[in-house]
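Ticket reopened. Same input as before:
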Amino acid sequence: MPLPAKAFQHWLHVVAPSASTADICRLSGIKRTTLAQQLVRGKVAESTLVSISRALKRSPLADLAAFESYADLAGRPQPPTPAELVSQIATMDLLRAVISRSAPAYGGYGDDGSALTPALGAAPHATSVRNWVDAIDDGELRHRVSDATGVAPQNYSAQLTANRLSPELAVATARAAGVGFTGGLVATGLLTEAEAGWPPEAKQAALDALSDGELTVLAGERLQALGKTLRRQEHEQEQTKKIWENLG
Amino acid sequence: MIAILQWTTLAVCAFVAIARIPSAVRGENRSLFFVYAFMTVAIVLSIEAPYLAVDSVLGGVNLANLLLRFIIFGTVFALGLRIARGFGADDALRLITGPPGIAFAGAASVAVVVVFLMMDTAGSSAGLISVYDRDARNAALVEYYGAAGRLYPAYITLALFPAMVRAVRGGLPGLVRLGAALLAVGTLAITLSLLSPVIPASLAYLRFVFSYTAILGLVVGLAAIWLSKILARKMRKAHTGLTG
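Engineering reply: fixed in the latest deploy. New output:
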């Protein structure tokens, strides 16, 4: 559930007492009509709050925690698990790590990376939401989330496939899995890793801690999933071409 | 209201037919041009003034109306074939070209001709309104004649309906899915128009709404698919490659 407009306006009044709505919109880059619409509907998107908090150089995490539905975020956040950290590494970065660990004859360095290996890309990546849920799923997670939130499993899966998850569901998923609340907010791109309080080297350290076998299996799984997606897209392109040939 | 619907439908259909002339000259999907052209002719024939002109040439016994039915049959068959092939709907293709499709076409044709011969059709009248007004027997026959004429189009479009629903739910480009959705709406409208004989007189306007919604759904749906092709050709996106 997005933030109640009343609580949002109260928050805005506290953090920027002298700023007009126009100022806030100009600073945060939010369209005035968008904000007005959200206020009229009584529901303000979490991303709106995060943008404004960012623009005011405040902590979006702490500001989110000031709202009742995100009270869980308050205090010292539980740090992400190594599996969650690895899930936020893009597939191409994982593959680069595989090559980097291979023998020099194959373009690698034979060790755990080198100064020449490019830095890992920032989360979120193209499949970060699904990878995050897969990383914390014990097999029953989707059912527990569905029971707790009333969101049908197929709707939940559809969001994962589209690499989307509402902040509310992201927090509910973390709660159902018993992990820290920041993982889902980073995976969905609401917060950056730094805003979530993740140490800058955390992802690289989690990657380095993977054995060659673990890394290879993980990269293989990611490649397989990517292949499936690409095959589906190719099939849809073929279909479209055929439709155009016959009806265009 | 009804006149607006009629003329809008005619304008849309004629516009699409004219817009397809250049590509037809180039030899791209010429049959589609003829589909649109025949649809336009069909709509022209359902409007009073042109109908009277054509029918007077054909002897003034409303043969033009019978001709109109068969133009529709042929157009719908050609269109159904194209749509089934385009959407890869083998199930629909079998239903259209297989024994059930041929049987349906035959039965619908016989029904239309037989009911036409049973009517007292003297005196040109668009929509056979003067025949309808003659007496109760002719009025009933006009209703069944109309329903028989819609039977085959309804069969073809219903055969395509599952494929359209699949296309709407799939991951095809937005305009193609919109096109499929409009074709599905057209299908429902044609099927509902089969109910014309039992629609009470107080709701008579519904008959027109169903008929013209059906034609508009088909024409605009196909135009949406065509438009998506033109747009895709204009802004062919650079291949983004493997980004997962």
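The two ends of chain B are 53 Å apart (CA to CA). Chain B touches chain A through 25 residues (CB under 8 Å). Please confirm and we'll close it.
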